[in-house]
């Protein structure tokens, strides 16, 4: 008993001695110029793992077992690193001196390891949270369009797609978006949903854009680049932050054909992060955006010259329902057979081989919802099992309305996407698992839904009654001609007569019909997608450099499972979900030579997709040499590939161009198209045959199994920091694409090989098919950027980029949608006046006119100049900021994609609390 008591007392004394050895270090960090507190400053006891980050109030506090004196190291981007030796636990008051950040930015995505951006072996662009705070754009995603070599397509207010190196389109499956280590693509559709789900405005630590090929590090679909987004660590960025933006868009009705008047714009963001103790921290993020949508309103006629008032077969780019088009010659012939006295009127019309007339379409405004809404939620918990071993659990959820363009406009109404992650993260390794789950909500497919709606209120032709829209149109046309009307006026009168009873857009009957059709799955003759696909991903990575001293080695394994679940509306999964798996292994090696003046790197990746028999092996070789102090010459060779998207692989695609004249329906076909029995012809040749009645115009299209595409890219670049005030970067690249995947519109006549069936649009079906072009495609270009520190917190940036396509395969829709050159300029000041309370920033973007082609159609995007600007004022005691700004300040409406809306100005006021 006495021994037990003695042992207990010894244990208590030992514990007390241990506690006494724990020194508590605390204090506050401020800006030496403005005297503001500085958050997120790293404070570390030198040569120990002990440290802390300053809170939103500038406070830090941690314990250390080190004996006094202790040297503390204070570091933060934008401030000079400072070391202080302390000899007691007295609270500190520390001031850091602001300094230029040119040449000091670090990146991770270029080699999966931390390195200075200026020394990166490949072209990479970076935006951090301070850039976002000073930006005039209303959201961080739109800032990306000002970066060197980046292209965007804005399909709607909440759906923006980015890319690099020229292949630009809405819903780009060849661009990878990584958010906190998770692939942000929709599991079924395989393209990123932009900012629709991911980081909220206040939770962005940094964004890194790798230009061009990046498959060796990030896998399939990294041909056009990769965006790596990193959220804020709750141990580092603490406290409550709120940002409220109130604005207005559509400020001038009629300008740029904008059908609306001024409309409110709201964006509310909240972030709360707390370090509970030295082991546990959490964060919660919420962002809600609501505004009136930009509506696409291109009235150009896709069927040739003329307008809705001069061409009976008018089909506007953004006119939905007018794709239904029928040759009325059979109705004219029937009328002549019934009344030969009409010969003087009808015979001149029948001299033409065909007289196509389209149904009356609906404009996008009033047809698709103009309610742009986006809700993003995120929660994360981090626990430090050891000082250098952390467990992370996070969940992200996005829901809202958006619109994107492809072969038509798709209104994603109440779509939902969630991502959920668990991760163990150590100093040299991580083990990560996550799942992505999508719900397509109530998606409106603009064109076929409108075509079916027209059939619902009045069939194009009802064989049982020999009545319908086209017979009525033909009868009214003949009556108007008989009374002396001109042919054009007769067509207008005939349309007006046939359209009697047509429900107006937005009316109760219109909405009932639209909602009914859009609520029926495509597998049952409606236009509803029921995509509930899921993605499961597991990844392990280890940095072996502390084991292997002669060379830096990073290696990893990745397993990915797509569970495709569309109930037969997108995929051939009517009998249950389809599983598609990908297996990957990768390694990155790096070596420093010649006193660290030369850095060589190599990356290799092995990928296997269960839909394809052969694996893919990709590689990257790179070299960076410091030719003079802070002058770096880089060279890289990269091979990238892309397995076809799940839809392309399964050859599932929307039936398009269906006339619905005989009760046809928009539907999704997959598997066997019957092309082995009923050959496919290019749709353009079918249309030429219809106009000329010459069968020799028909051109067969040979289909084969789709294969992965690949690109070999070479890049030479140069970066330099001059006198610590000028940072320049120049580059040139050349790429060779093999098995390039493009699209073509084809048609066949199921049930018959008689090509005369192509005269009747109710007897053939048209498809948009992905296929590999036989030609080798080349792209090349060059770019340059310069950033200048003008002192006193003034700064200027400018960049220029150019992209070209050689050996264009004109039989494919290849999505190379970019001007041959473009430039961006930025000028601003991050703090001037008393206590540097004032700041401003401006950016200007210029693009000349360029050609844009997608499945929707093609046309010229006019040249545009866009000016954004903001002016800010700090309320230091309130720890707040007020920003007044505008995107597209001049309100000169501009386009970024064919069939997409014109973008006008947004004028706003932002109040931000605890956002610095």
Automatic annotation (TrEMBL):
PROSITE patterns per the UniProt record, alphabetical: TONB_DEPENDENT_REC_3
Location of the protein in the cell: Cell outer membrane
Signal peptide boundaries: 1-21
Designated name of the protein: CarboxypepD_reg-like domain-containing protein
Organism in which the protein naturally occurs: Chitinophaga niabensis
SUPFAM superfamilies registered for this protein in UniProt: Carboxypeptidase regulatory domain-like (SSF49464), Porins (SSF56935)
Membrane topology: Multi-pass membrane protein
TonB-dependent receptor plug domain location: 117-226
Residues annotated as transmembrane: none
Signal among keywords: yes
């Amino acid at each position: 008993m006495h021994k037990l008591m003695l042992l207990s007392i010894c244990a208590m004394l030992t514990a007390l001695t241990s506690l006494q050895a724990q020194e508590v270090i605390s204090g506050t960090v401020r800006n030496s110029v403005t005297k503001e507190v500085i958050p997120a400053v790293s404070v570390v006891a030198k040569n120990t793992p002990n440290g802390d980050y300053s809170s939103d109030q500038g406070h830090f506090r941690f314990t250390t077992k080190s004996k006094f004196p202790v040297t503390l190291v204070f570091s933060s981007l934008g401030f000079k690193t400072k070391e202080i030796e302390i000899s007691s636990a007295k609270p500190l008051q520390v001031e850091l001196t602001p300094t230029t950040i040119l040449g000091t930015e670090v990146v991770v995505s270029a080699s999966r390891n931390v390195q200075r951006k200026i020394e990166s072996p490949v072209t990479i662009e970076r935006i951090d949270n301070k850039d976002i705070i000073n930006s005039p754009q209303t959201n961080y995603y739109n800032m990306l369009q000002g970066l060197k070599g980046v292209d965007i397509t804005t399909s709607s207010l909440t759906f923006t797609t980015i890319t690099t190196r020229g292949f630009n389109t809405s819903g780009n499956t060849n661009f990878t978006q990584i958010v906190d280590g998770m692939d942000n693509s929709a599991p079924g559709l395989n393209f990123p949903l932009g900012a629709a789900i991911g980081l909220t405005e206040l939770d962005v630590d940094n964004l890194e854009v790798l230009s061009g090929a990046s498959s060796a590090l990030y896998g399939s679909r990294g041909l056009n680049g990769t965006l790596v987004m990193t959220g804020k660590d709750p141990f580092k960025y603490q406290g409550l932050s709120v940002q409220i933006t109130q604005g207005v868009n559509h400020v001038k009705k009629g300008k740029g054909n904008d059908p609306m008047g001024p409309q409110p714009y709201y964006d509310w963001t909240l972030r709360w992060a707390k370090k509970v103790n030295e082991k546990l921290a959490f964060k919660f993020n919420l962002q809600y955006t609501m505004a009136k949508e930009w509506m696409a309103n291109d009235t150009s006629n896709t069927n040739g010259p003329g307008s809705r008032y001069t061409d009976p077969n008018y089909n506007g780019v953004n006119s939905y329902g007018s794709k239904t088009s029928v040759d009325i010659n059979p109705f004219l012939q029937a009328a002549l057979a019934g009344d030969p006295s009409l010969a003087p009127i009808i015979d001149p019309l029948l001299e033409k081989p065909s007289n196509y007339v389209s149904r009356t379409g609906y404009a996008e405004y009033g047809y698709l919802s103009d309610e742009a809404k986006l809700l993003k939620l995120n929660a994360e918990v981090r626990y430090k099992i050891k000082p250098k071993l952390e467990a992370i659990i996070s969940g992200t959820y996005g829901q809202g309305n958006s619109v994107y363009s492809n072969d038509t406009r798709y209104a994603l109404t109440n779509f939902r996407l969630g991502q959920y992650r668990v991760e163990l993260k150590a100093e040299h390794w991580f083990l990560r698992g996550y799942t992505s789950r999508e719900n397509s909500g109530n998606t409106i497919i603009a064109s076929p839904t409108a075509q079916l709606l027209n059939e619902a209120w009045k069939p194009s032709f009802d064989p049982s009654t020999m009545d319908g829209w086209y017979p009525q149109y033909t009868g009214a046309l003949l009556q108007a001609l008989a009374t002396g009307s001109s042919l054009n006026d007769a067509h207008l009168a005939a349309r007006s007569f046939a359209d009697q009873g047509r429900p107006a857009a937005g009316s109760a009957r219109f909405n009932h019909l639209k909602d009914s059709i859009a609520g029926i799955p495509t597998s049952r003759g409606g236009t509803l997608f029921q995509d509930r696909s899921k993605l499961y991903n597991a990844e392990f990575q280890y940095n072996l450099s502390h084991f292997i001293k002669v060379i830096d080695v990073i290696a990893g394994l990745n397993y990915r499972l797509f569970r495709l679940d569309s109930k037969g509306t997108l995929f051939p999964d009517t009998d249950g979900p389809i599983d598609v798996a990908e297996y990957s292994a990768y390694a990155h090696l790096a070596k420093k030579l010649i006193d660290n003046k030369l850095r060589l790197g190599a990356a290799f990746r092995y990928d296997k997709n269960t839909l394809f028999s052969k694996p893919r092996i990709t590689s990257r070789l790179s070299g960076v040499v410091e030719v003079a102090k802070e002058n770096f010459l880089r060279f890289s060779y990269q091979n990238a590939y892309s397995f076809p998207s799940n839809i392309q692989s399964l050859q599932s695609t929307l039936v398009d161009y269906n006339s619905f004249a005989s009760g046809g329906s928009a539907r999704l076909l997959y598997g066997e198209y019957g092309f082995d029995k009923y050959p496919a012809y290019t749709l353009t040749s079918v249309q030429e045959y219809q106009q000329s009645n010459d069968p020799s115009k028909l051109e067969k299209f040979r289909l084969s199994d789709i294969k992965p595409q690949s690109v070999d890219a070479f890049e030479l670049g140069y970066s330099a920091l001059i006198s610590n005030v000028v940072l320049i970067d120049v580059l040139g690249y050349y790429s060779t694409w093999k098995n390039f995947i493009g699209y073509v519109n084809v048609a066949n006549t199921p049930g018959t090989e008689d090509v005369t069936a192509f005269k009747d649009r109710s007897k053939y079906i048209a498809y948009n098919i992905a296929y590999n072009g036989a030609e080798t495609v080349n792209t090349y270009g060059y770019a340059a950027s310069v950033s200048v520190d003008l002192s006193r917190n003034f700064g200027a940036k400018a960049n220029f980029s150019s992209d070209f396509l050689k050996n264009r395969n004109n039989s494919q829709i290849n999505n190379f949608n970019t001007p041959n050159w473009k430039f961006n300029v930025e000028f601003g000041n991050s703090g001037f006046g008393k206590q540097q309370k004032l700041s401003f920033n401006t950016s200007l973007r210029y693009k000349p006119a360029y050609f844009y082609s997608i499945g929707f159609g093609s046309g010229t995007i006019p040249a545009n100049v866009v000016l954004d600007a903001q002016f800010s004022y700090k309320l230091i005691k309130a720890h707040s900021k007020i920003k007044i700004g505008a995107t597209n300040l001049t309100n000169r409406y501009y386009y970024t994609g064919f069939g997409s809306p014109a973008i006008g100005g947004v004028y706003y006021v932002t109040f931000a609390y605890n956002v610095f």
